[in-house]
Design goal:
single chain, eight-stranded antiparallel β-sheet, alpha+beta, 5 helices, five-stranded antiparallel β-sheet, globular
């Protein structure tokens, strides 16, 4: 018996110790991420233990697409920032906001302060606006970092309420749209977007209008794709929402949602414009969406 106990003790002492899994969590507030290490960047990539980014440009039929392929270790690394206090009308350059938050990649948000007709607007769990606009699709990012789309219509409020009652927490919510990919399939533009309340065609969303447009999409758990279709410049003529939906669906994403487009569009990588923006052409905005590292090299 003594020999058996001794053998068991030796086995315990020599057995490999399983390394404790690292957790990369950032506070869910308006603080930024940790400062990324310069050595982790290349011209088109960023890589560390918590974050993988690959940037890409595609020129197709006179349209330039700027694409950011993103994988994070924690849902807290997909974040939003605002120019001022919640619901304050202050604006700032997306480039300045992204640098202040140590963003590796940043894109414009929905520019919610331009609209006064309500909509569900939540940033980092803080509610800014609660009045739904049934003409618009709502995007919700939950506690797991998953994207959920609630189509406009009379049932939208009940569907969002059922979602929260099921135990989900809304970290960020946007009311812009439209949704252009659901369940991996392109979604044609809804009449709710194409026709205004007065019956006239909405020039911002008319299916024949080409414009710069910005998309946030999810490919899988903690995997995201930011896509900007450039327009109104020498390298790109812009896209319609239906064209953009077909292209983004071809990237293999499951859900994709349009943020503000036009002159609002901007994509930053490594503190620089990844698109054709210049400092003197960049528009001041109310909010951005960004990803950052959760590795504490250099501090927050």
């Amino acid at each position: 018996m003594k020999k058996l106990l001794l053998l068991l003790l030796c086995l315990c002492l020599t057995a490999p110790v399983l390394a404790e899994e690292k957790k990369y969590e950032l506070p869910i507030d308006f603080s930024g991420g940790y400062k990324p290490l310069e050595s982790n960047y290349t011209d088109t990539t960023y890589e560390d233990e918590s974050l993988s980014v690959r940037m890409e440009k595609r020129d197709i039929d006179g349209i330039r697409y700027d694409i950011a392929w993103i994988k994070v270790a924690s849902p807290t690394q997909l974040r939003t920032a605002v120019a001022g206090e919640p619901n304050e009308t202050k604006t700032d350059l997306a480039s300045r906001m992204s640098r202040a938050k140590n963003a590796v990649v940043a894109i414009n948000g929905e520019f919610y302060t331009q609209r006064t007709n309500g909509g569900l607007v939540i940033r980092q769990t803080i509610p800014f606006r609660y009045s739904l606009d049934p003409r618009k699709d709502v995007l919700v990012i939950d506690e797991a970092g998953d994207l959920h789309v609630f189509m406009g219509g009379d049932d939208q409020a009940q569907e969002i309420l059922a979602f929260t009652n099921s135990g989900h927490k809304i970290i960020n919510a946007f009311t812009f749209g439209p949704v252009i990919v659901m369940d991996g399939q392109a979604v044609p533009l809804s009449e709710r977007y194409r026709v205004r309340e007065d019956g006239r065609v909405n020039g911002l969303f008319d299916s024949a209008i080409r414009a710069p447009r910005m998309v946030i999409a999810q490919a899988g758990p903690l995997e995201y794709v930011f896509v900007e279709a450039e327009g109104r410049n020498a390298v790109s003529k812009g896209v319609t929402t239906d064209q953009l939906g077909e292209f983004v669906a071809s990237l293999g994403v499951q859900t994709a949602y349009c943020l503000d487009g036009g002159n609002t569009c901007v994509m930053m990588f490594h503190r620089k414009y990844y698109d054709s923006n210049l400092r003197n052409s960049e528009r001041e905005l109310s909010d951005i969406v960004y990803v950052c590292t959760a590795v504490p090299d250099g501090g927050m």
